[in-house]
Amino acid sequence: MTGHIPHLYVEDILHSGSALELTQDSLHRLRSVMRLREGSEVRVFNGRQGLWRSYVKLEGRHHVYLGVDCALKEQPHVMNDLTLYVPLIKPQRLGNLVRQAVELGVNRLVPFRSAYGGGSYTWNGSRMEGVVVGALEQSGRLLLPEVCKPLSFEDVLRGHDSRYPLFACLEHGVGEGRMMWKVLGDFLQGRKASIIVGPEGGFSAEEHEWFQEREGIHPVSLGRYILRSETASSLAVGMWISSREGF
Amino acid sequence: MTGHIPHLYVEDILHSGSALELTQDSLHRLRSVMRLREGSEVRVFNGRQGLWRSYVKLEGRHHVYLGVDCALKEQPHVMNDLTLYVPLIKPQRLGNLVRQAVELGVNRLVPFRSAYGGGSYTWNGSRMEGVVVGALEQSGRLLLPEVCKPLSFEDVLRGHDSRYPLFACLEHGVGEGRMMWKVLGDFLQGRKASIIVGPEGGFSAEEHEWFQEREGIHPVSLGRYILRSETASSLAVGMWISSREGF
Fold first, then answer.
1. Helix axes A91-104, B229-245, angle to 10 degrees
2. Domain with CATH 2.40.240.20 in chain A
3. Where in chain B is the domain with CATH 3.40.1280.10?
4. What does the DSSP 8-state code read for residue B203?
5. Which of B138, B242, B247 is closest, CB to CB, to A226?
6. ipTM of this predicted complex?
7. What mean pLDDT do residues B108-134 have?
8. Average per-residue pLDDT in chain B?
9. In terms of C-beta density within 10 A (0-12 exposed, 13-18 middle, 19 or more buried), how is residue A144 classed?
10. In angstroms, what separates the C-alpha of A202 from chain B's closest C-alpha?
11. Hey, are the CB atoms on A223 and B3 less than 8 Å from each other?
């Protein structure tokens, strides 16, 4: 119906003529977007070697593999270097946040724990890798973002390299944040940046002090109202990336 | 923990001293964000009379109602007039799309059926009203967006008033769309606009022709990659509204 040829992430090294065995997980993902027939085209990528054409091969009733044909696209150069600090929120909403961030082109995901939230939620690394792969396959992106282990809020700020901007998405009227869409124009030359979004309930007074005291931190506002973490994250990431990749 | 006083949408007329009986649904929503105790503050709004302070009253073990105290905020003037044409996608993703759009400040939601998608999904009006109310309560917005009945794609375009821009979010490289964030600057005086986002699979060739032939339609791109409907919608709506409401 849609005419889109599915993209599939694989871990194998890709070369013309190789046969890719499908993991249960890959098979499941492929089946959710297409009917597997002998000769159906699938585009495969491994995050390092660009995009390759392959065809479904059926052997007997149960053995499905992919025959790799040729490279269609080189691995893209990294155009952005955007780190998103991800608050630990409810798992389903966290999944949405990560999925949208990867679709939009974030390069590094760093979960963090802060005063308001994160106490009872955990970071399920393998689940999140699945979300990341699904978002890459869906969006056509070929660069695998780095997925880091959770940090404390303090370690996020201590580790921030002040030569690059860290945009702290704050509630309107807090911390004198300028509107994000206006700030974009000031950084049109920059490719490297970070964005931090708060959990439900935002940041604590102590955390706001950290933002004020550290260098290279730019408080920004996304509007007059309160956005959920995933909405704020998508808007901030989307505005930044689309203003970098645009022409 | 977060210190936010919950907002609750009610249908009643609000005046000082009135007692608001809570529907099962309102009770459920309140209980999901707070422990109901005698004297807890709840802010109530009905979409017409601004924001009012009220307090929880308990009578016996089972009767909970709200005592309305005084008005805290006037009903805001309508700053934007943004219509979002909503593709019929999978129910859960549709809910996310609508929720984020309302948080971000859309004024009118018009579901539509198009060639790629919408065949098997329906618009559950009462479920969507619940999603809308939840998003208003969470974001602090006081204006109830209008929720319309589904239209066909053709009726959306036939009904479009060409004095106002309709931004059609197209895949990159299709229909010569300019980057949305660049287009914003051309319309800084305008408050009335519409945005249309495609379903999974985008728009058909015939639908693209409609976009080209009608007046007042601006094809826009949100970036080089393929975004899911809800991600595209949030980014386009968020960029438009935050560039209107910003200061």
1. 80
2. 7-73
3. 81-245
4. -
5. B138
6. 0.88
7. 89
8. 90
9. middle
10. 7
11. no
CATH class entry, domain A81-245 = alpha beta
Considering CB atoms only, which of B223, B230, B241 is closest to A245?
B223
Give the whole-angstrom CA distance, residue A83 versus residue B234: 20
CATH code reported for the domain at A7-73: 2.40.240.20
Q: Residue A185: its chain B contacts at CB < 8 A? A: none
Query: Measured between CB atoms, which of B4, B103, B235 is closest to A227?
Result: B103
Helix, strand or coil, per DSSP, at residue B19: strand
Pick A173 or B128 by higher pLDDT: B128
CA distance B230 to chain A (A): 9
Between vectors from CA A86 to CA A180 and to CA A128, what angle results, nearest 5°? 135
pLDDT digits (tens, 9 = 90+) for A64-116: 999 999 999 999 887 789 999 999 999 999 999 999 999 999 999 999 999 88
DSSP A15: -
Question: Contacts of residue B105 in chain A, CB cutoff 8 Å?
Answer: 223, 225
The H helix count followed by the E strand count for chain B is 7, 13
Q: First vs last Cα of chain B: how many Å apart?
A: 30
- Distance (Å, whole) CA B195 – CA B176: 17
Task: Kindly report the pTM of this predicted structure.
Answer: 0.90
A103–B2 CB contact, under 8 Å:
no
Taking an 8 Å Cβ-Cβ cutoff, which residues of chain B contact chain A? 1-4, 96, 99-100, 103-105, 116, 138-141, 179-182, 184, 200-202, 221-228, 230-231, 234-235, 238-239, 241-243, 245-247
Contact yes or no for B201 and A1 at CB 8 A:
yes
Q: What is the largest CA-CA distance in chain B?
A: 66
Please give the sequence-ordered ranges of beta strands (E in DSSP) within B104-191, or none if there are none. Answer: 108-113, 146-147, 151-152, 166-170, 178-179
Taking every pair of Cα atoms in chain A, the longest distance, rounded to a whole number of angstroms, is 66
Q: Give the other-Cβ count within 10 Å of A69's Cβ.
A: 15
Distance from the Cα of residue B19 to its chain's centroid: 29
A243 → closest Cβ in B2, B181, B234: B181
**Cβ(B70)–Cβ(B49) below 8 Å:** no
Indicate yes or no: CB of A242 within 8 angstroms of CB of B179.
yes
